[in-house]
Records
---
Amino acid sequence: MALITEGRLMDQVALVTGATSGIGEAIARRFGAEGARVAVVGRDHERGEAVARSIAEVGGTAQFFAADVTSDDAVGSLVRAVLDRFGGLDIVVNNAGLSVPGNVVDTAPAQWDALFRINVRSAYLVSHHTLPHLLACGAGSVINISSEAGLKGLKDRAAYCAAKAALVGLTKAMAVDHSPHRIRINCICPGTVETPMVRRLIDSDADPLAMKKAFLQRRLTPHLGSPEDIAEAAVYFALPGNGYVTGAVLSVDGGSLAR
Ligand SMILES: NC(=O)c1ccc[n+]([C@@H]2O[C@H](COP(=O)([O-])OP(=O)(O)OC[C@H]3O[C@@H](n4cnc5c(N)ncnc54)[C@H](OP(=O)(O)O)[C@@H]3O)[C@@H](O)[C@H]2O)c1
């Protein structure tokens, strides 16, 4: 099988967290198809190896790196391993995340903390460990995956809305700090995308059909999003030529925010 020799991300190295499933998997595959060498990051070895293999099967280059991205030590080791393997790093996608239902009354403190650890602390830690390298190279793109929940209030998603809003704030603060040094920091806010995370949410609801209908009713489109819709937006932010695009918050949500 022929190796990929052309693509919009040739010669780029990308690290994608939460790439063993859903949106992150689609971003990793898409980056690989565009010629990037991809570090597929997650905790599930079987799924991670399968994603890396699927990229190699179409002529791309990828390796699975197992890491819990809420752990400072694990993220430090991860970044060193990726740099050792690929000799550089150009694109970082902070995608690992989790949504759990609940308002502030029925969200337990431990659940609140866990949600912030995976959605916010992980993005901070991965940025903390990768930015020094990007800054030394004088170029790079960081893409944070927030949510429509970061831009509006959603019923029974108090911790998730707060965590995803924090990612929007982190994006803007990082853009202010690092864009003068040619590091572009942008954020994508997906609306509901059919992934394992969303399927788990729907299946665990007392009325799964009503929940799916509610997801659809928030949109102007007659359908929910696909992981590939989000991957396309990520490619846009990753393109090295898009040097003027930083500090942006892009909704890819079927028009949910327009209501
Ligand atoms: N789906 C949607 O409708 C939607 C909408 C807006 C925003 N988002 C956001 O998009 C991102 C991806 O969501 P998804 O729907 O694709 O979810 P998903 O299919 O459940 O995937 C979540 C990913 O996060 C990884 N992950 C979770 N905890 C981790 C940890 N401690 N360390 C390392 N990796 C960890 C999982 O990897 P392992 O299982 O291998 O650990 C998995 O690859 C999330 O940030 C989510 O909030 C999703």
---
Amino acid sequence: MSHAVLSPSSASRWLSCTPSARLEMQFPDKAGDFALEGSLAHEFGELRLKRYSNIIDEPEWNKKTSELMENRFYSESLEEYAENYAAFVWEKYQLAQKTTADAVLRIEEKIDLTAYVPEGFGTGDAVILADGTMEIIDLKYGKGVQVSAVENKQMMLYALGALDMFGFMYAIHTVRMTIYQPRLDNISEWEIPAEELLIWGANELAPRAKMAFAGEGSFVPGKHCQFCRAKAQCRALAEKNLETAKHEFDDASLLSDTEISKLLEQMDIIKNWMSAIEEYALQAALNGKTFPGFKLVEGRSIRKYVDEKQVADRLMENGYKESAIYEPPKLKTITAMEKLVTKKAFTALLGDLIIKPQGKPTLVPESDKRREWNSVENDFKNV
Ligand code: SF4
């Protein structure tokens, strides 16, 4: 697992806020379980691609698959998502072979980034080279945030490292970056001329990475703070958020629409920041720290049966009927059922019995990809 000062996955952060990388090192990395689950999905994907490519034979594939199934993060759905990723890459590779007979597929390629980022390294999940185009595909197993390939700094770093590796063997004029995020049904692609990427690498990435590695530059809060390990205690972020809260609004009793828009823009950042402070302060208090004006108390809790069978037996011994003390069985939730029967079988078996009711109206930034809620259309529905 990567312990580089400047990890590619946080590149968008240290490129925007160069001192953040060194500051973050003071705080523990809590991504542990998610990272391990993601690694397992990558291992399954890699194994399947190696089998498709005949790098490993059937017995070896079976043996290694069984070993991976012992992992505590294993689930059928994880394996299915990884299989779908491998099929996606393999299909792209076969398509590339149609136009370029000697198309190349590299799987889980270690990428040296030191030409741009001090001590930088990464792994390209899949790289396809064909017809002057280098495509770099990244499997994102997380489902918390939908990731876009457009100007994705992590992908741009990987692509620069891969250009360094393959650029002198193949004439690459275009770089395509593809994110495959199966748990959100998200496939995002972005292309850039190789020349343009190299210019960005030399003029922007390398000097910013040098500053970030040295811990130099100014703290710059923004959307990139969301996953910063320092966010609960970062002064720059606190000052920015508090400044938003006491915004120099127009001198009137009520906020204007424009002022409400400004607050909405900042809402996610502020909510995320406040939760981080709450989580940090609780943990610190549990470790003995005291915060003036606050104390630790026991939270509310609800009563629980110690043993449901014993409760039922005792009630029935005392004359209560089974039908009166038990609730009728309930179907599992859709998510739990999908996990039980696997995603593919679920759609085939129950697809026609699942409906998705219209969601509640939600205010989102204009850049959101969802279609705008049509209030006139919806007014007519209620007539
Ligand atoms: S919270 Fe934001 S401003 Fe503060 S160090 Fe992290 S990235 Fe920089």
